[in-house]
């Protein structure tokens, strides 16, 4: 078959698999419940929008500050402990938002150990600012979401050569101005990609926001479904959320204009000395402790105090399912994302860009909404097929709903943006001249793929694989709804405990999940770290 | 990438073998449950030992499970739908996914206000949603009713859980039925005024706040209190049974119903009936420190120690009928 036809079919299939669950959202508009909409508009909608925007703004600012500064320090500077922090700062990625949220509340709420101790010292009227607030939630989410920015910005800084920065210095800019005026703008696609991921995750988050009882657009979607039992209105709200994301992403792309960002060249490092070096080290220690070390220690202490007794042979199964699903979904997602990015670069058809964009939208959807969309569309196909089976005399049954395929598809659709972002920013850094040179030397497509693209994209592919792997392990709502019978995972186990408020008992599956999430971080990142 | 094709084909294999498992003929019942695994698995294991019927189950929140049963339609694998909260059971019946049942056994074992009139679902355990207070800062004589928590003496002393939890929606739904919408709203608004701190995500956190001195009274489900008391027997907290001169304490249920398109309807009905029987009830309720629905079965020792109380005998399905109105009321009252 013709290669470009193949590419077109692939593109349509990828976009189509996202279209499937999204079309269910579109169909939800066929039935509009005026009473619920009037109620939402009259009472909660305006405060929800304000809440959501405050959250997005806060998380956006803090993850950018943390992610970019840490990436700059570890990728470009040198200070005591840099090699360790280089990979250790990615560890908070393994911490699900629903876990860090209950750990932080357990530690910092009025009844927690810190405030109780402070009251013992300073008297009973001593109160810290309310942690169950917008500021508290922004902090908690930022602590586990900054690695998205950190990882992407880090690869971008690593691949920047010293040439341009040297030029900047020759022209009279100091190292910090050089960072601000040259390195930062050049890393912009990567940083924007990371921030977009963090913000989409924030928008779709239901774990941390429910632990903090902070009302966002997503909690309203769930309330409309779980409380009013109006799945149509929930779908309508979700499609509005999606529209918002599409517009935001489009604006970001447009403001980038026609700028080009490929680069390369020699590596260099700024040697930090004296107090500067120690501040850098302390900053890294502070972030790593708050986002990872202290929460893990708290989880471990809960496990030790209470419920090591829950540990049994089932955990082998849970762990196996979590890792297996994450590995399969990771491979599938990364392969599809790679081809999407390749097609986007190789063909200048007018529809390519929007279709690729379309295929990466699933990340902004709340997990349950996406899951129910996939479930409904698969059930529709299944029930249709049943008629066919009956005609053909085959025993009927549901083969898609409740099968592994539906679950994997849900993961692929949900996390395509994550993989695509990492791989696409890898592509951004390859000079077109390299490809042109290879072509002019007569390289075939296979050679181009195997000897140019794949080797040059290895860091991006590994980052993508790692991100998807860890995200799938943490994923809860789609796993709950679509897993086949008996395929419980660690996230399911966490759900079983937290849904009835047994946070201490959730510590065991929680910590297992975090530790299992470290395996790929250690395997892949240490290999890619230089 | 040949390893990739191998991976994919084994994936397809797993998929289809899973499909064929469900058409096997062994005696089994498939349960979709939003009651937690650790509360149902011991009973299912016991049932299998006693009868040889194997029980397979999947857990999730109630609304997604209902959506799944509905979407799977005639092909669903679910024989029994099990959930907590009468509101959820009413919604399931309303959605048309449960089959009406004529079962003399259930009619004997389960009081009529705790099951559907058409037999589409039956309660299996009772939980009371009642007042909890600090024994250090509150005298039981200061407490009377849910409504009295709206009085100014509790300003800055009340803690509540979020209105998004269905247990609070059911509580307010029954208050609306008893007091009328207007009265109920003024009470809920006054609760909000009396709050000492933003509402909590769960009952356990709420009680910890009372222990820490952040507030003095709250409203919780009995078993959460039981769990805390079991871990720390000498906590300075106690349960209070409100509205004893009037309608009684608000109770809710966990329960189950046979699905409309069950593949094993008889087996599912037998399991449901067994769960309501004397032999299963004390374990079913006891595992979660709830009250049995079956009047012949005594609650566990630790639950009995909380004392007897007069329960509200209103049909529990009022929780479902009034749920949407209750949520709107709480939104208007600013109860998050």
How would you portray this structure in words?
By secondary structure, chain A is mainly α. Chain A has two domains: about 240 residues, MetI-like fold (Orthogonal Bundle), CATH 1.10.3720; about 280 residues, MetI-like fold (Orthogonal Bundle). Chain A is about 75% helix and about 0% strand. A two-stranded parallel sheet of chain A has the order 1-2. In chain A, helix 5 packs across helix 7. Chain A is globular. Chain B is α/β, with parallel strands linked by helices and about 325 residues long. Chain B has two domains: about 150 residues, D-Maltodextrin-Binding Protein, domain 2 (3-Layer(aba) Sandwich); about 140 residues, 3-Layer(aba) Sandwich (D-Maltodextrin-Binding Protein, domain 2). Chain B is about 45% helix and about 15% strand. In chain B, strands 1, 2, 3, 4, 5, 6, 7, 8 and 9 form a nine-stranded mixed β-sheet that branches. In chain B, helix 6 crosses helix 7 and helix 6 crosses helix 14. The longest helix of chain B is centred in the first third of the chain and has 20 residues. Chain B is globular, with a radius of gyration of 22 Å. Chain B starts with a helix and ends with a helix. About 0% of the residues of chain B have low confidence. At the A-B interface, helix 12, helix 15, helix 17, helix 18 and helix 21 of A face helix 1, strand 2, helix 3, helix 8 and helix 14 of B.
């Amino acid at each position: 078959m013709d290669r470009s036809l193949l590419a077109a079919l692939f593109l349509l299939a990828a976009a189509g698999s996202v279209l499937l669950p999204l079309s269910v959202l579109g169909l939800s508009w066929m039935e509009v419940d005026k009473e619920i909409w009037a109620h939402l508009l009259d009472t909660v909608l305006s405060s929800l929008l304000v809440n959501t925007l405050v959250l997005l703004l806060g998380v956006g600012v803090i993850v950018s500050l943390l992610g970019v500064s840490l990436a700059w320090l570890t990728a470009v500077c040198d200070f005591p402990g840099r090699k360790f922090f280089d990979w250790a700062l990615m560890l908070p990625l393994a911490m699900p938002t629903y876990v860090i949220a209950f750990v932080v509340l357990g530690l910092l709420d009025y009844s927690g150990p810190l405030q109780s101790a402070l009251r013992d010292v300073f008297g009973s009227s001593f109160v810290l600012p309310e942690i169950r607030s917008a500021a508290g939630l922004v902090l908690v989410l930022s602590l586990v979401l900054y690695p998205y920015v950190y990882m992407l910005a880090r690869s971008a800084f690593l691949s920047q050569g010293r040439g341009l920065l040297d030029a900047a210095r020759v022209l009279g800019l100091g190292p910090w101005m050089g960072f601000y005026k040259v390195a930062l703008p050049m890393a912009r696609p990567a940083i924007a990609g990371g921030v977009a991921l963090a913000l989409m995750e924030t928008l779709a988050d239901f774990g941390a926001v429910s632990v903090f009882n902070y009302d966002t657009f997503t909690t309203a979607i769930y309330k409309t479904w779980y409380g009013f039992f109006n799945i149509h209105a929930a779908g309508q709200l979700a499609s509005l959320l999606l529209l918002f994301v599409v517009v935001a992403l489009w604006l970001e792309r447009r403001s980038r204009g026609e700028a080009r960002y490929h680069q390369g060249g020699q590596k260099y490092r700024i040697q930090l000395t004296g107090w500067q070096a120690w501040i850098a080290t302390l900053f890294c220690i502070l972030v790593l402790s708050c986002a990872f070390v202290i929460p893990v220690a708290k989880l471990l202490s809960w496990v030790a105090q209470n419920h090591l007794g829950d540990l049994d042979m089932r955990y082998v199964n849970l762990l196996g399912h979590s890792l297996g699903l994450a590995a399969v979904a990771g491979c599938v997602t990364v392969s599809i994302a790679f081809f999407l990015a390749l097609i986007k670069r190789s063909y200048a058809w007018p529809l390519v860009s929007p279709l690729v964009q379309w295929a990466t939208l699933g990340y902004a959807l709340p997990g349950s909404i996406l899951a129910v969309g996939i479930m409904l569309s698969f059930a529709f196909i299944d029930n249709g097929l049943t008629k066919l089976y009956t005609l053909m005399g085959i025993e009927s049954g549901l083969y898609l709903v409740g099968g592994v395929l539906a679950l994997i598809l849900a993961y692929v659709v949900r996390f395509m943006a994550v993989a695509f972002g990492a791989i696409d920013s890898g592509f951004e850094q390859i000079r077109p001249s390299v490809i042109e040179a290879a072509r002019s030397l007569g390289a075939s497509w296979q050679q181009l793929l195997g000897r140019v693209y794949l080797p040059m994209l290895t860091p991006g592919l590994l980052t993508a694989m790692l991100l998807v792997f860890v995200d799938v392990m943490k994923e809860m709502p789609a796993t709950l709804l679509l897993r086949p019978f008996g395929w419980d995972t660690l996230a399911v186990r966490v759900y079983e405990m937290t849904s009835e408020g047994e946070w201490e008992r959730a510590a065991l599956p929680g910590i297992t999940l975090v530790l299992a999430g470290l395996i790929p971080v250690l395997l892949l990142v240490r290999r890619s770290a230089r | 990438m040949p390893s990739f094709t191998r991976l994919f084909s084994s994936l397809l294999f797993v998929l289809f073998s899973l499909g064929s498992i469900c058409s096997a003929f062994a005696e089994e019942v498939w349960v979709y449950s939003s009651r937690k695994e650790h509360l149902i698995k011991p009973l299912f294991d016991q049932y299998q030992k006693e009868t040889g019927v194997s029980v397979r189950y999947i857990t999730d929140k109630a609304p997604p499970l209902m959506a799944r049963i509905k979407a799977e339609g005639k092909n669903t694998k679910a024989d029994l739908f099990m959930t907590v909260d009468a509101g959820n059971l009413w919604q399931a019946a309303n959605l048309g996914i449960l089959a009406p049942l004529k079962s003399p056994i259930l009619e004997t074992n389960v009081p009529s206000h705790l099951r559907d009139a058409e037999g589409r679902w039956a309660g299996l355990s009772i939980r009371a949603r009642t007042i909890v207070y600090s024994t250090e800062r509150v005298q039981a004589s200061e407490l009377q009713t849910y409504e009295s928590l709206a009085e100014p003496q509790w300003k800055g002393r009340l803690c509540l859980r979020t209105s998004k939890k269905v247990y609070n929606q059911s509580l307010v739904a029954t208050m609306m039925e008893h007091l009328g919408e207007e009265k109920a709203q003024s009470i809920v608004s006054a609760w909000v005024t009396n709050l000492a701190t933003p509402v909590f995500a769960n009952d356990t956190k709420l009680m910890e706040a009372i222990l820490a001195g952040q507030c003095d009274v709250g409203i919780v489900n009995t078993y959460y209190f039981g769990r805390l008391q079991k871990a720390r027997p000498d906590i300075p907290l106690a349960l209070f049974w409100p509205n004893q001169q009037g309608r009684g304490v608000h109770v809710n249920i966990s329960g189950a119903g046979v699905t409309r398109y069950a593949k094993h309807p008889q087996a599912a009905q037998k399991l449901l009936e067994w769960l309501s029987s004397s032999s299963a009830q004390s374990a079913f309720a006891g595992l979660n420190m709830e009250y049995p629905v079956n009047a012949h079965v005594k609650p566990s020792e630790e639950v009995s120690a909380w004392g007897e109380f007069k329960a509200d005998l209103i049909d529990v399905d009022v929780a479902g009928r009034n749920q949407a109105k209750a949520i709107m009321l709480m939104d208007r009252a600013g109860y998050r």
